[in-house]
Amino acid sequence: MDELVFLIPALAGVIAYFIRGKLTRYIPFLVAIVHAVITAHICIEPSQAIILKNYIFITPLGKIVLGLISLLFLIVSYYSIDYLKNSNYESEHIYSSMLLFFVSAMSLAAISDHIILTWIAIEATTISSASLIYLHKTRDSVVATWKYLITCSVGISLALLGSFITLQSFMEPEKISGLLFSNLMAYTGAINHYGS
Question: What is the C-alpha end-to-end distance of the chain, expressed in Å?
Answer without folding.
Answer: 43
